[in-house]
Every structure is written in C-alpha cells, then in structure tokens.
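Hi F.,

I've been meaning to write this up properly since the lab meeting, where we talked about keeping a consistent format for the predictions we share between groups. The idea is simple: the sequence comes first, exactly as it goes in, then the structure tokens exactly as they come out, then a line or two of notes. No screenshots and no reformatting. I'm using this chain as the first example so we have something concrete to point to.
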Amino acid sequence: MERKKRILIAPLNWGLGHATRCIPIIRLLLESGFDPVIGSDGDALQLLQNEFEDLEFVELPEYKIQYAEKGRYFKLKMVWDSPKIMKAISKEHKMTKKIVEDRAIDGIISDNRLGVYSKKVPSVFITHQLNVLTGNTTRFSSAIHQKVISKFQECWVPDVAGEPNLSGVLGHPEKPLHNVRYIGPLSRLEKLDLPLKYELMVLLSGPEPQRSMLEQRLLEQVQDFKGNVLFVRGKIEPRQSVVTKGVAKVYNFMTSEQLEVAFAKSRMILCRSGYTTVMDLAKLDKKAFFIPTPGQYEQEYIAERLKKLQLVPSCCQDTFSLDMLSDVENYKGLSKINSDFDLNRLFDLFKCE
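Output, unedited:
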C-alpha cells in the first residue's frame, strides 16, 4: 500500500482566525488522501486539537504577540516585541527542518507562520495580506512581507482576484506577485436553515488584553439588550463551559458544528472585523456590526471599507453602545462571493514526484 503524503499545516496563533480558516484545508487534505500533521501553539493548537482529535500534532514556538492596552500604542508595542518575534521565527524555522526530517514531511502549508518553510519540500504560504497596512510605514512593511512570501513556492490568498472581493488593497497589490494563487474565500462553516432563537450573537477572539477588555465591556452592556443574547467569549480551553449571565447565554468557545447552529439561530452578529470572520459572514449571508481591534490597521481598514460600501456598520471600541445595533438594518450585509478556482487543483504542488 502506497504511503500517504504527509503535509505539515501550521497556522499562526494570533487570534483564532488563522486556525479556523485552516480547518476546511485540513478537511480537504484528508478527503484528498493526504496525512495532515498540525503545528501551532496556544489557543490555535488547542482549537485544532478539539476539532481533529485523531491527527498528529506538534507544538511550535510561541510568538508571544500581545496588543497594547491603548490602540495608539499598537505599532510601538509591535516594534518593541519584534526582537522576540524574530527569535521565535528563527527557532520555528530550525524546528521545521527537524520536523521535515523526523516526521517524513512531504509538503508544508503555513498560514502566516513566517519561519515554517523548507527548501527540501514544497512550501505554501497562506495570507490575505499581500500588503501589510501599518500607517506611514505601509510600503516598508509590505515589502518585508512580500520578501518573506518569495521564500515559498506558492502563496494562497483566500479571496478572488477580481471585483467584488473581500480583502480590498490587502490582498490586491498594484504590482502582482508571481507566486500568488487566489483560491477563493475559506470558511469552515456551512449555512443552515433553522428558526431564530437569539436576537444577538456576540463572537469574540483575538490576542490579549484587547479580547478581555471588549468581553468585559460587552457583557455589561448586553444586560440591557431587549432579546436573547448568545455570547461566545472565544477563550479556548480544554473543556467547554456554558453559564447564564442575565439575558446572555455565555460559552467559553464553540466547535465548528456548534457555531454553524449558533449563526443560523442568530439574527445579527456583533464581532471583530477579522478577515476570517468576514469570510464566514459572507458565506452564511449574515448581517453584522463590527468593532475592530484598536490600533490594528488591517481590521480598521476592513471595517471602514465595508462601511463605505454600505455592507456592515462599525465603530471604534471606546464609542460603542447598544443603540448603534439599530444601524444594522440600514446596511446590505455580506453575501457569498463565488470563486472560479477549482479546489481539486489546490494540492497539485504536493502531487508532483
């Protein structure tokens, strides 16, 4: 019997989006006869272990990314943390070489883990940020990121090449990169037709301390909401917990299957404007209100762009109030964007001898 090719798939542990958008890729790898090995750390690793109990896992170095408590210090905090991030990238690259040898890896799919590539096996980088927005240093940060991308044989962008698209300038640089494939939006969720149960679903994720700061603020505010509230904290832990706090039913986290049901039973969604969440909402045809992470240029750009397009309303974290949710009805909401990319060709790179 021919040995299944082993593919290391490694999402960045920065919020949950990188891990969750890898779920459909892992499923497709399994369906296509590959043997996935999952590498990550922290919440991202725990989430994927909850989803794929029978697969092989390897723990990669932690980037230790934390946001500043004030959004205006975001860039300064990232510059301050850059030495330890670079150290983690160097360490994970050395680990990747060893993992490829010790675990007989035949290919690599890295979702924004900059050091997870190998010259010995085909390596793919997943990102929706071909341009990395950092204010007045955007040109520099984008050039650095594109140089990293060039170390991989292919770069998969989870969007479409033309209009309309979800990522805007993030995924569509003026000068196209030679190794890019637009594979269409990725979502682990399927749209279900179920009766509504919740007027509002709050869905949180993202690095600390901003996740906890928003959680505390919203848990207090939703107690005055008129209607049932489903509150998903986005806190990945070994066991699921469910408690009731006033009008809100509060989960620490949900599995993919539970989230599909939760989205279907909820009239509107209150969440961050992370790109993976945007892809999920578009596939599920859901209306939402966005609160971008303070200081994170990418989320602020996505929220502002979708607001200008009259698709999703948004506001900054410090000014949000419950009465703003009435704006949701005045916006079109996100809808599915169809891709002409044939997903059956996604793993051609790994099929070559």
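Notes:
Residues 73-80 have pLDDT under 50 and may be disordered.
Residues 133 and 297 are 6 Å apart (CA to CA).

If this format works for you, I'll send the rest the same way.

G.
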